[in-house]
Structure formats: structure tokens, C-alpha cells
Amino acid sequence: MTAGPGTGSGTSAPATPSGHGTVPTEPQHAGRDIPLPSPEHRARGLGTVLGIAVAVIFALLPFVDVDVPVILPGLLSSPGALQVLAIGLVFAGVAMSYDVVFGYTGLLSFGHALFFGVAVYGTNLLMVHAGWGFGVSALAAVLLSATTAALVGAVALRARGIAFAMVTLAFVEAFAIFLITDPLGITGGEDGLALARDGVPDLFRGVLNTRNLYWLALAFAVVTYLVVRQCTASSGGRVWQAVRENEDRVELLGIRPYPVKLLAFVVGGTLAGVGGCVYLLVVRGANPDVAGADFALALLIMVVLGGSGRLWGAALGGLIYGLLTLRLPALSTSGVLDGLPEWLENVVAEPLFVLGTLFVLLVLFVPQGIAGSVERVRAALVRRSSP
Amino acid sequence: MSTFVLIVVTSLGLAGLYFLLAAGLSLIFGLMNVLNLAHGAFFGIGGYAAWLTMDRLEVVSSLGLRFLVAVLVAAVVGLVVGALVERLLIARSYDNHLGQILLTIGLGFALVALLGGVFSYDAQPLVQPAWFGQTTELLGARIPNSRLLILAVAVVLLAALLLFLAKTRHGLVIRAGVENRSMVEALGIDVSRSFTLVFALGGLLAAVGGALGAVYFNGISPALGTTQLIFAFIVVVIGGLGSVTGTALSAVVVALTQQLINFYGAPGLGDIAVVGLLAAVLLLRPQGLLGAVAR
User: Fold this and answer.
1) With a cut of 70, which residues of chain A have pLDDT below it?
2) Would B69 be classed as within a structural domain?
3) Does the N terminus or the C terminus of chain B have fewer Cβ atoms within 10 A?
4) Partners of residue A348 in chain B, C-beta under 8 Å
């Protein structure tokens, strides 16, 4: 029901229940995120056009010589600015993959950072210690991410609610401890592990090729968007949303929630793994910061900031988060904050302070996130224009 | 043998810290179903309150007495911060558990970053009474006095908490609320006052833990509490949500497992083994050692 005729690819929008185990789709049971048909079809078509436009604009950014003060270092087309944007785009993609787990299936999992981190480190470890090329290493690492997601999910999903959240948090932290204490002497401890340059294809090597990395990150974000949209619009994807709305009812309808949730976990984890491989190339190294509990919480912030259960919201949240964390420290040296006492200046330029405070205010006053607010405004406008 | 005794007693000191962090978490969770991810920040705030007192309160020349004041200051600060957080933030969304968790996540980030901005991220060494660094001979092992002190404070607070829960009317309401909140509400008792109380108590215990943690870890840094929080979560789940005795027992089990394997195995292996322990408990006994089934 989320996908209508206006979606473009008609294959994934079966209006009639096909085969066994499809969730009945009476409108009166639809959750808050499953919109009513008629105005939404128009909006969907508009959404597709808008989405393509955004992707094209992003793809053309490396050709634009504009100075964006404070937000980006230097000209838009400079390698520094493109790297910041590329990190933001990777975060956007990973946030969308997390939206599968959190936003669509309603699982408060902190394990997502683990699957991302496994791919970042897995790829680099294979390149550094086994001397494999990037392509093979990345493929193996993504498979490893998927396997890890399946195993962790299989254990953690035995618990529900808060206990589930705590267990996933424990797993991700165990991995971070493994990386930092480095008992096997392979991960480089707290300093991390620089990218093995020899295995990287020429296309992505060197500062001059940063724009290729940027396009790679953009491609990852776009592909993730398309895959997740396809998945969540399929009948299986609607069972995810049904589990989020009411797990007991899904069980009562004869569908076991456990494999459904596990599938969401693995799909999201695999996509996060792909993002991890791209991230490794963009930041040219593996650092334990991206694999710990803090990054897991950061993913949650990205998705809630943008609006959970709405893909473009999650993407926007990831992009904003990436830009804020990377660029806020530069605020203290930019002169904007001159005149404040030094300790206050330190605090304001602290990315996590700004994000944390912003997040608290958001949860209190705008719980539906950016995307939710925009949709609410749009719905109000539509109602006013067509009584 | 003496090494073994030393490690066991040191672990018990760490278990004391875990207990102080986990007891509040467990009560808050048991009563309110809130996973307080800002709890590590309470620990950090307590640590810095104690550090500031030790650093600045030069009027009290005896370091031992000054440390006593520092712990009391930390306790009061923790109590106030806990109560304020509950009243100002958590109370706004009682029926939205996800919202409450998200609030505590944002708050945890903001508070730790605030500490980092004000005090810098470098660890601040704590001025300590000389007695803390001296050792006491026990079963052939020379145990640093600070470890024994931490253990003693944790045991006293455990006893006080159990007495409070068992003997006072507020404690009775909290225990009943953990057991069945809707029933307590149906009897006409205002549970929301107990919510503020457990948050304040949790803040107090965590802040005292922070003050003692600054001794145990030879200094305080903003993220110290958050690092310990993960182990406190493991302690809470293994102990059984809402059970204070279970939390104390599980703190000892977790700290012993962690430290013994870290020492006799490889550094860091113990931390990972604790997560394995958690997975095992969850698969075999989801309700924890002593406690109701985790919902």
C-alpha cells in the first residue's frame, strides 16, 4: 500500500495479497506511516522526480567552484570539501540501512555500528595482512558483515524490548574493546589501521581522485536508497512494518516474527557493511571510533533527527550529522564565536554537545523528526487546497 | 597465591563501582522501564564534583577529611542532577519509553561533551590522602587501602539501600511498583513521586561511584562513566532487572570474571568474556540471576 502506480517500477507493488503469509491490508489497520491513497500517489511521483533531481545535483557538485564558508573547508570542488561531503553521504547511506532495522521494523538495535565496523576493519585487515586487493577484500568483508548480523541477531532477538537493546549494545562494545585492546596484535589498537594503499584501485588513489571517492559515496547512498525502498515496499517489507506496529498481532496472523526481524537485521547489516567498505576508502583508514557504542548511538541520532521510517529523512539526518561532527570543531577557530568565554567556546564547538542538546530538544518538541515535520506541513497544505 | 588474592580484592573494589552504577540503573529500569543511557554521565559528574572539591577546598587541610567532604558533595550533586533530569526531561514523556531512551541518549552525549569542554578530555589526576596508596597485608597479599575503602563504601550503601527499600514507606512503594506498577497506581498511590526518588537515588549512587572511581582509576576523564556504563548494563541484565541483591551478586561475578581473565588470559579478553557471559545467561536464563523476566 505504500507503493502505488506512480512509483515507477510496478513489479514491487502487488496490490493483492500474493500467495501465503501476506499481511492483510485493510486501511483501518494501517499505521501512521502508511498513507492514504489519492494525494499520496501524486506525491510519490513528485518524490521520484525530486529524488532524481537531488541525485543529479549531488553528482554535479564536484564541478561547482563555490566557496561555502563554515560548512565546508574551501571551495566546493576542493578535495577537502568533497571528502567531508563524501563522509556525509556514507553516513546518509548507513543511516538509511539502519532505518530498515529501527525505523521500519521497530528494533532498537545498537548492533548496527558493529556490522559497519566489521566491514571497515575486515576490508583493511585483509588488505594489510593478507595482501588481497580492495575488491576481493570488500566482498569478503561484506559477507562477514552479513554473517555477523545473522549470528548476533540470532542471539539478541531472543530477547525483546530493552533487554534486546542492551544485548546488542554489549556486542558492539565487545567488538570495540577487541579493536582497542588488540589481543591479537592486528588492529592497531586505539590508533587504528591506515589503509593499505597498494590494494586500492588507481581510480580511488591520491588526493586528486577525491572526486571519484565522492561519486563512489554518492553511488552507495543512491543504491542503498533504491534497495531499501524496494525492500520496504515489497510484501515482506510490509511485514517488517507490521512487526513494528504490533508484533503480537503478526504472530496471531500466523507469521513468526523472529525470522522476519532477523531478515531485517541481515539486510540492514549487509548494506551497512557495503557502507563500511566505502568509508574505509574515503577516510583512508580504520579507526575504532566507528565501531563503538558511541557510533551506534550516533546512528540512532541520525535516523531520529531526520525522521525514522522515512528514507529521505534518515538520509538527510546522516548527512547533517556528518557535516556537524566534522565541521563544528572548525567553528571555534573561524572567529564566529569570538567574545565568548573560553570554556563556553570549547563547549559550543563540541560536536557532541551541540548534537546531544539538539537531539534532546528534538525528541521533546519535534519527535517526528525533520521528515515528519515536512510531511505534516505538506499534509496540512494539501488539506487546505483541496477541501 | 598472593597475586590471586590481590586480584580478587581489586576485582571486589571494581565490583563495588559496578554495583553503584548498576543499582540505580536496575531500580530505574525495574520501576519505570527506562534504560538510562545518561547514567554514565552521572558517574562522570560525581567524579568531577569530587575532583573539584579535592582540588579547590584547601580550607580543609586534612586530605582524608577533604575526601569525605568530596564524596558528600558528589552525592548531593548526583542527587540533585538525578532529580532534575527526571523532573525536567523524563517526566515529560512517561508513556513513551522510546522517547525516554532517546532523551537519555542525547543527554548523555551532551553532558559528557559539556564535561569535556569545561575540564578538557585529558584525565585529571585526583589528589588523594596518602593512606589510600598504602597497603594492608591480607592473606599474604599487599592490598592498596583504596580498594578496601571502595569495597567498604559499596557494602555500606548496599546495606543502606536494602534497608531503605525494606523498612520505609517510599521503599515499599518502589518495591511494589517494580512488582506491578499498575496495581500500585490502582491503589491510589502517586508512583510518579517514586520515579523522581529512584532517579535521585540512582544519581546519588552513580555520583558516589564516580568519586570512588576517580580513586580507583587514579583520575577522572569525561568518558570514564560511559565506558563503565556498558559493564553496568551487563551487570543489570545478568543480575535481573529491578533486583538490588541480584545486581550486587552479578557485579561481583562480572568483575571477578573480567579481571581474572584479563590477568591470567590476555588484556582485554576478560572484557570480551563478560559479553560472552551475558549471551550465555540470556540464552539459558533470560530473567537473570534473581529477577523477573525481562520485558
Assistant:
1) 1-44, 70, 331-340, 386-387
2) yes
3) N
4) 117
A-B interface: how many C-beta pairs under 8 angstroms? 146
The CA angle B236-B240-B245, to the nearest 5 degrees, is 85
pLDDT in tens, B41-73: 999 999 999 998 888 877 777 777 888 888 899
Q: Is the ipTM here above 0.95?
A: no
Q: Supply the range of the domain harboring residue B143.
A: 2-224
How far is the C-alpha of A99 from the C-alpha of A33, rounded, in Å?
13
Q: Residue A286: phi, psi to the nearest 5?
A: -115, 130
Q: How far is B295 from chain A (nearest CA, A)?
A: 6
User: Mean pLDDT over all residues of chain B?
Assistant: 84
Question: Which string of DSSP letters, residue by residue, matches A321-337?
Answer: HHHHHHHHHHHTTTTTT
Contacts of A161 in chain B (CB under 8 A): 294-295
Interface of A with B in 107-146 (CB under 8 A): 108
At A343, which CATH number?
1.10.3470
Which carries the bigger pLDDT value, residue A29 or residue B264?
B264
Within a domain: residue A22? no
Residue of B nearest to A177 (CA): B268
Is B230 inside a domain boundary? Answer: no
A376 located within any domain: yes
Measure A346 CA to nearest chain B CA, in Å: 5
| DSSP character at residue A75 | B
- State the burial class of residue A37 (Cβ atoms within 10 Å of its Cβ: 0-12, 13-18, 19+): exposed
How many angstroms from the chain centroid is the CA of residue B14?
A: 10
On whether the CB atoms of residues A265 and A115 are closer than 8 A, the answer is no
Percentage of chain B surpassing pLDDT 90?
Answer: 18
Output A238-243 pairs: Cβ under 8 A, ≥24 positions apart. A238/A1, A238/A2, A238/A22, A238/A23, A238/A25, A239/A21, A239/A22, A239/A23, A240/A100, A240/A104, A240/A105, A240/A264, A241/A31, A241/A33, A241/A34, A241/A104, A241/A105, A241/A309, A242/A23, A243/A105, A243/A106
Report pLDDT for A266.
Answer: 93
Residue B220 DSSP code: B
Looking at the 3D structure of chain B, how many domains does it have?
A: 1
Total domains present in chain A:
1
Cell of A133: 586487493
Residue A276 lies in a domain: yes
Q: What's the predicted TM-score (pTM) here? A: 0.79
